[in-house]
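User: Hi! Is it possible to get a structure for several chains at once, not just one? Here's what I have:
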Amino acid sequence: MTTIPIHPAGKPAYNLSRQAREAEIVLDHITDDFDGNPAAMQYFYDLFRRVYIQGEALAHEGKLIGTTCIQAPDELIYAMGGTPVRLCNGSYHYDQIGADFMPAKSCSLVKATLGMLHADNPIPRIGKPDLIVNPTTCDQKKKASAMIEDMGYAVYDLEMPNVKDSEEARLYWQRSVRQFAQKLRQVTGRKLTKKNLKAAMARTSRAQAAFRTLHNFRKASPALMLGKDVFLVTNAFFFDDIERWIAAVEKLNAELAQRQADGYQAAQRRAPRILFTGSPPVFPNLKLPLLIEEAGGVVVADETCSANRMLYDMTAVDEWLLHDMVDGLADKYLKPCTCPIFTRNDDRRRRLLELAASFGVDGVVYQAFAGCQVYEMEQKSVAAALNAKGIAMLYIETDYSPDDHGQLTTRIEAFLESIKTRKRKRA
Amino acid sequence: MNYFAGLDIGSTAIKVALINDEGEIVGVHVTDSGSLFHKNAKEALRVLLERHGVAREQVKYLIATGYGRKLFKEADDSISEITANAIGAHEVGKAFGGVRTIINIGGQDSKAIEIDATGSVSNFAMNDKCAAGTGRFLDVAARNLDLDLEELGDYHFNSKGAPLTINSTCTVFAESEIIGLLANGHGKEEIVAGIHYSIAKRTVRLTKRVGIENRVYFDGGPALNKGLVAAIQDELQRELVVPEHPQTTTAFGAAILARSEFLAEAA
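Assistant: Yes, the chains can be modeled jointly so their relative placement is included. Here is the combined structure:
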């Protein structure tokens, strides 16, 4: 009797190659099927190719702290000498593995993150985190916490309030963040000081400043670059070394400044300008932004926690005393957060209207992952607020699977056609 | 004489519409999509042109639409079926005093489209990757009941008791539900009526998402089914405008657009 080896010698494990194939198809599409990719994007294309396809291991300084949400303050982790890495995963392959842990109709992102953590050799190869911080946001992430722990990871629940605007919620969250700092002290063996926190804040502020510059370049009409590339840039922030990332974004910004000076056009003058909101696109699941841009639209801004929301706000500190600094940091994370998990979310509608006005937006595409109930529930009120201002919104419920490609193409093309017709009539 | 054509390559059927210089309809043709979309689409166009004695060169502009639109490279342009449907329904609807809401049920999806007074799409909604409430659902149900699609209307109106309730929103589960009802000795008529009401309820919910304005136009293959029309009217509590050729509204819309594109380019 002959036994068939599970992993034939010299060949990568089956799972690995599937994951890599999925990433490769998307990355090739991003790089080869569009014209006028900025030269400075090469850094990011190479980074994703190395990390997601070739499976390059990522280095990190000090303790490795995994985060499952943007609400975990990176500044505290950097201050205590650790490296934060965002674990939110976008792979359909891992989504299918994660389906063993969650009900069938649950969020692809949570399932994929579980599937990735469950894998023997997870991609990106970040190494085993010394701690995973799980802010208690939506129900699915709350319940994922114990499952991740069962897989053999150390998990810390960072308690989040359900309400955002009350003073009680603010104080509760400030306490939570202080407790998280204590936990980090245990894990890293380092003390949080005024000095190291200030340095960490300066570090993330530089990243924010670089991103804000990039963000502002997208106001240009005609567009200077396509949105698919911006999603790669912000996705890289999940795992890339922050200093290298800042340098790469600054290089991209310099190129965009040159493009602007040269009157360069990355899209047609009449190309519908789209604001993207809702469930976050995470590489390789960039299917919706890519469909929009294949169909002749251009994503000029977004309101998602995988991109815009993570870098937009700066920390405001009244007094440079450690206690006040941590409170200020906590406020920075809670107050501007537009996640639909909160009871009320007027801020999200305000931000969308503000983005639509300042980026010359023609229409909004709202993605809700099937099973992400809070985003599903908020779509009506968001649509009403946008429609009242004469901005059309396309609501799309989808997940990581590629099987609705045809349907989505039809809907997106029809949406862009209706925008074009309206623009022609107005002209 | 110049002609303009719209070719709607759908998941189940291929529809062709031919119009003349004046924008008047010359003829329409409907055939199965089969598995060879491109070949069958070419053949459908050839058959229609031959029937009306029109040479291919006389067709000055051709626009493809529907799921297979990108496959038909011979077309001058392609457009999504939602836009094409809106243009077609706006034109056909004029005879009924104008329509503002369109319900379209196709082979694998159902849509509700709201149009403005000029016929441009202002809003639309589509079912999310699931065949429930579509033509495919009727297909599967008819097969389970051993009926032809054309018979469904008569069975609906011959139903004596109250329509049965089909609760499953999934085509596959509905199939087993129908088999269960048959096994319990329920009449086919009541089951057929139940299926129609089940589709009607889903369709009306979808339509409410875009808003129901004035006259509602119903097209797509399943609009040929009088029983389904009655069920939707009942759920909607208003009369539907059903065109003479409900299957070809979208192809007609593409042909109208082909003509205006040609005229715009010539000008």
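The CA atoms of residues 165 and 194 of chain B lie 5 Å apart. The interface with chain A takes residues 67, 79-83, 109, 118, 120-126, 128-129 of chain B (CB under 8 Å).

User: Great, thank you!
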